[in-house]
């Protein structure tokens, strides 16, 4: 049984998690890139998430939703990211304008 996405990630801290998976300490502005993830499997999973679940042109930057999903994968927490995906899709539609 999967839990709500936000509830499953209640202990998530993006700075600490990024430090854990990348061995990079965050200084000031935080714009993580997928090349900062040395683990090949996690880096591939982030790119897969960026292309399939949260589609966009630039897949190099790791977004917060992707970090949260990677966090649940590393901690073996079952989730349903449907709400996050719909929110992303709606924001993409707002950026491009009406579809006609």
Q: State the major sheet.
A: 2 strands, parallel
Assess the beta-strand content as a share of residues. under 5%
Question: Judging from the principal axes of the Cα atoms, what is the shape?
Answer: globular
Rg is 14 Å
On the 0-100 scale, what is the average pLDDT? Answer: 79
Strand-and-helix sequence, N→C?
A: EHHHHEH
Biggest sheet strand order reads 1-2
What's the N-to-C terminus distance? 40 Å
Describe this structure in words.
By secondary structure, the chain is mainly α. It has helices at about 5-10, 15-20, 40-55, 65-75, 80-95; strands at about 5, 80.
Write the layout of secondary structure elements.
Elements: E1 3-4, H1 5-8, H2 14-22, H3 40-53, H4 64-74, E2 79-80, H5 82-96
Parallel strand pairs: 1-2
Q: What labels describe this entry?
A:
100 residues; 53% helix; mainly alpha; 4% strand; two-stranded parallel sheet; 2 strands
Quick summary of this structure?
Helices cover 53% and strands 4% of the residues. It has 5 helices and 2 strands. It has a two-stranded parallel ribbon with strand order 1-2.
């Amino acid at each position: 049984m999967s839990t709500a996405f936000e509830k499953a990630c209640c202990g998530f801290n993006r700075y600490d998690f990024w430090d854990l998976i990348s061995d990079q300490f965050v200084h000031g502005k935080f714009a993580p890139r997928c090349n900062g993830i040395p683990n090949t499997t996690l880096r591939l999973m982030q790119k897969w998430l960026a292309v399939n679940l949260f589609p966009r042109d630039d897949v190099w930057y790791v977004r917060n939703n992707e970090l949260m999903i990677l966090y649940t994968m590393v901690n073996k927490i079952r989730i349903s990211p449907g709400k996050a995906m719909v929110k992303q899709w709606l924001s993409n539609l707002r950026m491009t304008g009406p579809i006609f």
